[in-house]
Amino acid sequence: MRYEGSVYRPPSEAHSLILQATLGCSYNRCSYCAMYQEKRFRPRSRDDLRVDMDLAAQVHGADAIRRIFLADGDALILRTGRLLEILDDIRERFPNFERASVYASPQSMLAKSVDDIRALKSAGLTLYYTGPETGHPVVMERIAKGVTPEEFLEGAARVTEGGGKLSAIFLLGIGGVELSHEHAVASAEFANRMAPRYVSTLTLTAVPGTPIHDEIERGDLVLPDDHGILVELRTFISHLDLPGGAVFRSNHASNQLPLGGRLNADRERLVALVDQVLEDPAFPLRPRVDPSRL
Ligand code: SF4
Question: Is 6 inside any structural domain?
Answer without folding.
Answer: no
